[in-house]
Specification:
The chain is of the alpha/beta class. It is built from seven helices and nine strands, in the order E-E-E-H-E-H-E-H-E-H-E-E-H-H-E-H. The strands form two sheets. The chain has a seven-stranded mixed β-sheet, sandwiched between helices. Strands 2-3 form a two-stranded antiparallel ribbon.
């Protein structure tokens, strides 16, 4: 089964006021760390959806492929559509990853991926010890439906509608960065 990871890294960072993808994290950036974790996982392909030249230039991917996204729609769904467009016909599944979630490790990605491969579902959400969160995994049969979604929290509608199976992970949900307070909590 060929599973592609799609990292959403084309957001506008409106709540932060500057590109959060470029914020320093460890020896790289927030997005650089997310790419590194995906590349260290057992995902077959890693696609990184980016909008700006500056963000693209900041990345040093080893095996990840950059997907340029120039649409004026800055929502997560629009970035997801760009990732879907970059998939090959032999892709059996897609893991949706956030570029601003540095606590998501390659080990967690592999745990979710292994469980999904053992029992593929149309859609699956990671169920952490405190609440559900990313990554999501979708079978190829869901791709057409994903293309109909719009907005920033659109994939969550699938969870709310009971369309996604839960994949348990024995850890709390890693934080993501939307505000300066979020960033300060992650880097301290």
């Amino acid at each position: 089964m060929l599973i592609a990871g799609v990292i959403l890294g084309a957001g506008a960072s409106t709540r932060l006021g500057q590109p959060k993808q470029l914020l320093p994290f460890r020896d790289t950036t927030l997005l650089g760390w997310a790419v590194r974790q995906a590349e260290a996982s057992s995902l077959d392909r890693v696609l990184v959806v980016v909008r700006s030249d500056e963000v693209a230039a900041s990345l040093r991917p080893e095996r990840a492929e950059l997907v340029r996204f120039d649409d004026t729609d800055t929502t997560c769904s629009a970035s997801l559509h760009a990732g879907l467009d970059a998939l090959t016909e032999d892709t059996d599944g897609l893991m949706l990853l956030l570029g601003d979630m540095p606590g998501l490790t390659a080990a967690v990605i592999d745990t979710v991926l292994d469980q999904w491969r053992a029992d593929p579902a149309w859609a699956a959400v990671t169920s952490y010890t405190d609440r559900p969160g990313h990554p999501f995994v979708f079978a190829a049969g869901a791709f057409q439906h994903l293309r109909t979604l719009h907005g920033d929290k659109a994939v969550w509608k699938l969870v709310d509608a009971g369309r996604a199976r839960s994949i348990p992970v024995d850890a709390p949900l890693p934080g993501d960065v939307d505000t300066w307070d979020d960033y300060r909590q992650i880097v301290t």
